[in-house]
Amino acid sequence: MVSAEKLKMIRTHYKLSQIEFAEKLGVSRSTYTNIEQGRTAATPRLINTVAAIFHIDREMLEDDDKEDNSFLNSLIDDAILEKYRKLKPTYRECAEKQLDQLLELQEREENATESPVDQTTSPMTQ
Fold it and tell me: Which pLDDT score, from 0 to 100, does residue 55 have?
């Protein structure tokens, strides 16, 4: 069974109202509201529709034992990729350079936090 919370997370991730989400899924707002509030179970057809429209693995949607919501990471990745694909080639180059710079900065920051403690300020030398 698909958890109502997962459906709500998908809906809010895409900044859709219950009405907009229901329309995308081909159900009435009241039907969707009942599903999101846990009063009604999502049908297999609805689950398939959510999986197809939002590119989410059906098993991840149905697996309530997994409380991690890692499926949201794929939604975010898809959204970023979709934006990247809309860029003209010259803007893509710029975006790639900026990403490279951010990764370099991140690596420098990580290396700085991993560097050994200065021996002169170490409590062991006092």
Answer: 83
The CB density around residue 27, as the number of other CB atoms within 10 Å, is 19
| Whether 74 contacts 60, CB under 8 Å | no
> What does the DSSP assignment read for the chain?
---HHHHHHHHHHTT--HHHHHHHHTS-HHHHHHHHTTSSPPPHHHHHHHHHHHT--HHHHH-TT----THHHHHHHHHHHHHHHHS-HHHHHHHHHHHHHHHHHHHHHHHHHHSPPPGGG-GGG-
- C-alpha Rg value of the chain to the nearest Å: 22
**How much is the pTM?**
0.60
Residue showing tokens 């529709």: 49
Q: What is the pLDDT of residues 31-59, one digit of tens each?
A: 999 999 999 999 999 999 999 998 888 88
Q: Cβ contacts of residue 32 below 8 Å, gap of 6+?
A: 18, 21, 22, 25
pLDDT digits (tens, 9 = 90+) for 72-96: 777 778 778 888 999 999 999 999 9
